[in-house]
Amino acid sequence: MDILTEALASMRTGQPVAVRTTGFAPWAMSLPPIPGSGFHVVLSGAAWLIPVEESGEQPVYLREGDVVFLRDGCRTVLADHPDTPPQEPRSVESPPGAPLGAVTLGADGERADLLCGYYHLDQARQHPLVGRLPRIIHLPAAGTRSPELAAAVGLLRTELDRPRMGSAGIVPVLIDSLLLYILRAWHEEQPPETARGWAAALADQAVAPALTALHGDPARAWTVQELAVRAGLSRAAFAKRFAELVGEPPMAYLTRWRMTTAARLLRESEAPLAAVAARTGYGSEYAFAKAFKREYGQAPGGYRRELRTAA
């Protein structure tokens, strides 16, 4: 069971949105808050990412090949220099044969090309694997320990610079995969001696197997004792270690994951409520509906109808 893939799948509410942005110095573009998690990839040149909200983050200088991930899609400015005042970009164009729309702004100075976009992720119910990340993650191309991320950036640059047969299908897949590469790179690059939270949990020899078991079979009637035996620890030691790294006790996390799994089944499948209840560990539709309403504030049937109406 791939915990990262499952966690992201549980949060996805739509397909990624992306556009190619080209700026000629001096240039600056204000980016409003977005309903998901944002990302920027520097395809060529350089740029500054400037947080606008009072969150304590400092401007980040981005070089060619750098990737930045915005956990909450916060308001930011992209610019050639922090002092350049933001301007309205020209309208999004769709160049013939290009796999993405394009935005151009600025004057006639030094050029920078970026891939800018966001992932539709449920911000109201973030999985803690994402929710406890830093608000801004900067993955520099220089010194990265993730050759896969660097390769994905290189492939994107090639397909966008020289669109060919198949580019329209390749680019969206690469953008979709980029999210996994970004998060995997960040978690794997945390030094073991200083890693905290989920970065430590996913590498922990006791907690990681327990998480894999809970994700792999949420319907099972797990007990803390059973998970502790799998982890090779006493019940008390395991419960303490799990809570410290994951942020909540094992059974609380199991309930959260069951409800997250149920919401995903209601959103993406036609499974009857009884089947959803069984697949998430509830012996009756009534018990499942009661637990779901406590977590989501509405009955599962109403939740499903509301999603379909919104769509």
Highlighted features:
311 residues, alpha+beta, 6-stranded mixed β-sheet, 4-stranded antiparallel β-sheet, 43% helix, globular
Report on this structure.
With 311 residues, the chain is of the alpha+beta class. Helix content is 43%, strand content 17%. The protein contains twelve helices and ten strands. It has helices at residues 3-11, 128-131, 147-161, 167-188, 197-201, 207-216, 224-231, 235-246, 250-268, 273-279, 285-296, 300-310; strands spanning 17-24, 28-31, 37-44, 47-51, 60-62, 67-70, 76-79, 102-106, 111-119, 136-139. It has a six-stranded mixed sheet, covered by helices on one side. The chain has a four-stranded antiparallel sheet with strand order 2-7-4-5, with no helix packed on it. β4 (47-51) and β5 (60-62) form a beta hairpin. α3 packs antiparallel against α4, α7 packs across α8 and α10 crosses α11 (285-296). The radius of gyration is 22 Å and the shape is globular. 33% of the residues are buried. The mean pLDDT is 90.
